[in-house]
């Protein structure tokens, strides 16, 4: 798929409804990708950083019967999680690191004319950190209480 599309809201008793997609930040017009070459606590950090899509830029978004969405990064084969125990400028960092679904892996995705991603664990919108520089540029964080340009995706 060319852009970010929310799976149908129609719930099925047989399991989640999933869709494969690329996700683009409208703040910088870049595709999201997990940083699999990073090490330590930033391994799998998701950033809005690429222009063209390769394997790292593909995700599977699933709408679950419980009323939440999950995002699986293909290249990592891991669910995205909001790192709520991180502090400072890393609070709420999204990382492709989870093999199971718990609270930090649950999101609410709404797509009126653009899409927003809200962490259900801390009730904050995901933003692409476009003021960060270097290897942190475009880092996704669940940290916003309102929606601006950095919290919009397609």
UniProtKB/TrEMBL annotation:
It comes from the Bacteria. It comes from Sphaerisporangium melleum. Gene3D superfamilies: 2.80.10.50. This is Uncharacterized protein.
